UniProtKB/TrEMBL annotation:
<dbReference type="InterPro" id="IPR010982">
    <property type="entry name" value="Lambda_DNA-bd_dom_sf"/>
</dbReference>
<dbReference type="GO" id="GO:0000976">
    <property type="term" value="F:transcription cis-regulatory region binding"/>
</dbReference>
<dbReference type="InterPro" id="IPR000843">
    <property type="entry name" value="HTH_LacI"/>
</dbReference>
<keyword id="KW-0805">Transcription regulation</keyword>
<dbReference type="Pfam" id="PF13377">
    <property type="entry name" value="Peripla_BP_3"/>
</dbReference>
<protein>
    <submittedName>
        <fullName>DNA-binding transcriptional repressor EbgR</fullName>
    </submittedName>
</protein>
<dbReference type="InterPro" id="IPR046335">
    <property type="entry name" value="LacI/GalR-like_sensor"/>
</dbReference>
<keyword id="KW-0804">Transcription</keyword>
<dbReference type="Pfam" id="PF00356">
    <property type="entry name" value="LacI"/>
</dbReference>
<keyword id="KW-0238">DNA-binding</keyword>
<dbReference type="InterPro" id="IPR028082">
    <property type="entry name" value="Peripla_BP_I"/>
</dbReference>
<feature type="domain" description="HTH lacI-type">
    <location>
        <begin position="2"/>
        <end position="58"/>
    </location>
</feature>
<dbReference type="GO" id="GO:0003700">
    <property type="term" value="F:DNA-binding transcription factor activity"/>
</dbReference>
Length: 327
């Protein structure tokens, strides 16, 4: 596992700076490019450490893939989960000798070389898809799926994760569980929130008054947690939609003087490298986000190679990692 010292050495900054960046310290004054470099290195070292196989040199496949990230590049700092997906895509393309062009916020560049495959990361607008299908019909969703689509997809079973976390808290004896999450589209709940609310209400442990929704950032998590704590009564178990949100929630809980996990427990989602360096360390559901990027590349290659017509849906595995924010 990568350590703070490893990250600090490669980034050329102090241990304290790395720790404060990874814990989203709002009092730290540091350039955005420095923050981005620290997150890049943390993710890179984590990926190198978790990979037990040496890269295999593959023959040139003469492919040119376009990766369309349906968010601004700054999102990779606010939530390194997205950074991990990109690293998976880039690593596999490099391994297979595939030319890759990245573009953000659905801003599709003019491309001279023929595109043989497109990776759509996140939810795409219909007009974006229409533009891309003029380049190639070999498209693959990553971190999104559509049962009505003819495209391949690599995604996570977020509904199952929500149920798993709810069941864990019930087994721990909690009779009231809250939720703090984000939204990809304005005024819309994501699958985690929907599944959690439906399943939790069925189990009798969730009230919609205990569901809070903002953005997938630590600052949003902080604000939502402060809103929750302002009430005289609040749940003592929390399901947090992402580690980035959870970092902000932790800060608010510490400021409120709560002892974690004795006074309040929480579980988040993603297991980004930062999750190990929070205080206490985050209990979270490990999602192999880099594997989503890798398998997206593999599906594009395999579809061309085999002439496959039927779309495939691939779900990457997840695992609950219990650490310091649960009893």
């Amino acid at each position: 596992m990568a350590t703070l010292k490893d990250i600090a050495t490669e980034a050329g900054v102090s241990l304290a700076t790395v720790s404060r960046v990874l814990n989203d310290d709002p009092t730290l004054s540091v350039k955005e490019e420095t923050k981005h470099r620290i997150f890049e290195i943390a993710e890179k070292l984590e990926y190198k450490t978790s990979s037990s196989k040496k890269a295999i040199q593959a023959k040139k496949l003469n492919h040119h893939f376009l990766a369309v990230y349906n968010y601004k590049q700054e999102a990779e700092v606010n939530d390194p989960y997205y950074l991990s997906i990109r690293h998976g895509i880039e690593t596999q393309c490099d391994k297979l000798g595939i030319e890759l062009t990245n573009c953000y916020d659905s801003d599709i560049p003019a491309i001279s070389n023929k595109v043989t495959g497109v990776l759509l990361v996140g939810r795409s607008q219909p007009e974006t898809i229409e533009k891309l299908t003029k380049l190639t019909d070999n498209l693959c969703y990553v971190d999104f799926s559509d049962n009505q689509s003819s495209f391949d997809s690599v995604d996570i079973d977020l509904a199952r994760i929500s149920k798993e976390v709810t069941d864990y808290f019930i087994q721990q004896g909690f009779e009231r569980i809250g939720f703090i999450g984000g939204q990809d589209q304005p005024n819309s709940a994501d699958i985690r929130e929907i599944a959690f609310a439906e399943y939790g209400q069925l189990k009798g442990v969730v009230s919609l008054d205990d569901v809070y929704r903002g953005e997938f950032t630590s600052s949003s998590g902080y604000d939502l947690a402060k809103k929750m704590l302002a009430k005289s009564d609040f749940p003592r178990a929390l399901f947090i939609a992402s580690d980035s949100i959870a970092i902000g929630v932790l800060r608010a809980l510490h400021e409120h003087g709560l002892n974690i996990p004795d006074d309040i427990s929480l579980i988040s989602v993603n297991d980004i490298p930062t999750a190990k360096f929070t205080f206490p360390s985050l209990s979270t559901v490990r999602i192999h986000s880099e594997m989503m990027g890798i398998q997206g590349v593999n599906l594009l290659v395999e579809k061309v190679r085999d002439g496959r017509a039927l779309p495939l849906q691939v779900y990457v595995p997840s695992k609950l990692k219990l650490r310091g924010t649960t009893r």
